[in-house]
Amino acid sequence: MTVHQSALSLSQVHYHARNTIKVTKHKAMHTMNSSDIPPFETTFAVPLSCESCIKDVSTSLYKLPGIHNVSADLESQLISITGNAPPSAIVKAIEDTGRDAILRGSGKKGEEAAVCILETHASHVRDGVRGLIRMVQVGDNLTIADVTVKGVKAGEYRITIREAGDISRGAASAGGVWDAVQARKEGRQGVKGAFGTVTVGQSGLGSVFLHRPVKIWEMIGRSFVVTRQEEGKFEKDDEDTLVGVIARSAGVWDNDKTVCSCSGKTVWEERKEQRGKGML
Description:
2 domains, nine-stranded antiparallel beta sheet, 15 strands, 15% helix, Superoxide dismutase 1 copper chaperone
């Protein structure tokens, strides 16, 4: 069955934030102090059986800087978080309680969200998924990007949006950096497609929380390239160069189902299959 959205009832448990916002540190361009980001809402499907479960999850979440409010609905198995913490940090905080967490929507009512699955196009790699970028437009001209990569060599990687969404030949077919030509014509410094950098450690993992003065609709259908390679000289078989097409994703409360109408599988069954394919 499909669980439909309903108004928050008196039986739902609400917890209000007590902690103050702290600075999130990242080694990259365009990183943000969380206090600079307008609060936005994210909804997660989380397996919950009782109010004690909700309390455990909420306690873990409130340890994060930037969490303003947590609301949970036992019937729909959904948790709603308002604040400005990165979605990836929220997922980890929930998983630290021994429960899974699946993002079901993000942003505010009327705001847009997008997602990009990062993959390597190296021909010798079997499971190519290497990362995920979640994007939420939190202002008229402000979009945040929560970037996570895994399974790549240590180093600093440049994150750019490309003019095209053709990734048939990896980064080589994705076009130039979005807005670079127009910026040169206008003699301005800021290039919309230059998002920043992410530093990957020896474990092969890296994450960063970025922001850019762009709108979600401008990015849909374009592609991200995350690479250490020199601009314009991309090798298709470089397994550490990651690409992905930017697609629109569900806004907050736009996707509250727990069973897929196509496959008949629960979100937890689908999540298990996705993780087996390398999905974050």
